[in-house]
């Protein structure tokens, strides 16, 4: 197992273990683990507007994506320079990859690598713009642990792609576009569009008729995928990172472990959010599932 694969695996297991401890309703773990609506669940003694040195505003989610833009932009520029011009990784990128355990795979296409880092770039830019210009945040908080984990994820997801990428020079006009490249890009575009629509629905829930943000307002979301699940934004996040793995047909070990981390994180977040909805809204639609339509 590669070093970065092990890191993603450890992070995933830490999330699972943390959730198990949350279920025990001890004092410390829920404080560090739960964020947003999860901090409003009955039985934990947590408060959304609690002030403490280990809590930061949930609106700081934008920092995750800004970090992702900075780090992945460097990765994307290095990838373009290597594949289209120099044929070798820049020394700084090569040094980082060697530290993280670079293991070139002959089964990975340079075109798929280019598409992957471009898709990640589009994702972090879109999410940053949504956080700044679309989302309407309450006074809800998250712990520094969650904040640091989020920063680390977006700092390393781009370089994770390169750690198994071939070092070569290519000509784009001679590279065949495979069916899985087309499928992955199509799924990514659809999921990104849908996630943007869902985030706009969320934002409107906090606005009164004049468009002003109601800081403490909570309502049941309706429309689009909300007809089927409580957390379509989490489902679409999983689909977006699934599309990245389709590019490599499951041959990119590190990205598979990063995907597993995303799935684990989104599933647990969906369970917590779904529980909050059912607890706070007695009339909550009983047919809605937490994450997967008709199933879960």
UniProtKB/TrEMBL annotation:
PANTHER family referenced in this protein's UniProt entry, alphabetically: DFG10 PROTEIN, POLYPRENOL REDUCTASE
GO molecular function, one term: polyprenol reductase activity
Protein species of origin: Mytilus galloprovincialis (Mediterranean mussel)
Identification of the protein by name: Polyprenal reductase
InterPro entries: 3-oxo-5_a-steroid_4-DH_C, Dfg10/SRD5A3
Record bears the keyword NADP: yes
UniProt GO cellular component terms: endoplasmic reticulum membrane
Higher taxonomy: Eukaryota, Metazoa, Spiralia, Lophotrochozoa, Mollusca
EC numbers on record: 1.3.1.94
């Amino acid at each position: 197992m590669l070093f970065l694969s092990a890191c993603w695996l450890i992070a995933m297991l830490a999330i699972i273990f943390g959730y198990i401890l949350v279920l025990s309703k001890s004092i410390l773990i829920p404080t560090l683990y739960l964020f947003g609506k999860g901090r409003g669940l009955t039985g934990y003694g947590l408060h959304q507007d609690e002030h403490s040195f280990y809590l930061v505003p949930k609106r700081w989610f934008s920092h995750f994506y800004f970090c992702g833009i900075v780090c992945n932009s460097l990765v994307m520029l290095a990838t373009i320079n290597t594949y289209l011009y120099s044929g070798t990784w820049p020394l700084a990128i090569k040094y980082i990859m060697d530290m993280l355990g670079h293991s070139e795979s002959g089964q990975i296409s340079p075109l798929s690598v280019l598409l992957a880092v471009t898709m990640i770039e589009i994702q972090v830019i879109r999410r940053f713009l949504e956080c700044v210009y679309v989302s309407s945040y309450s006074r809800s908080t998250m712990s520094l642990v969650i904040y640091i984990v989020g920063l680390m994820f977006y700092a390393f997801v781009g370089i994770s792609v390169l750690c198994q990428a071939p070092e070569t020079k290519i000509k784009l006009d001679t590279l065949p576009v495979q069916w899985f490249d087309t499928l992955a890009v199509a799924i990514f575009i659809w999921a990104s569009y849908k996630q943007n629509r869902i985030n706009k629905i969320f934002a409107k829930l906090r606005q009164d008729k004049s468009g002003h943000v109601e800081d403490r307002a909570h309502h049941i979301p309706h429309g689009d995928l909300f007809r089927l699940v409580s957390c379509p934004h989490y489902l679409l996040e999983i689909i977006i990172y699934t599309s990245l793995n389709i590019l490599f047909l499951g041959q990119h070990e590190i990205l598979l472990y990063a995907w597993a981390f995303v799935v684990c994180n989104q599933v647990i977040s969906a369970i917590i959010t779904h529980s909050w909805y059912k607890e706070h809204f007695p009339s909550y639609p009983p047919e809605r599932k937490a994450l997967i339509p008709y199933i879960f």
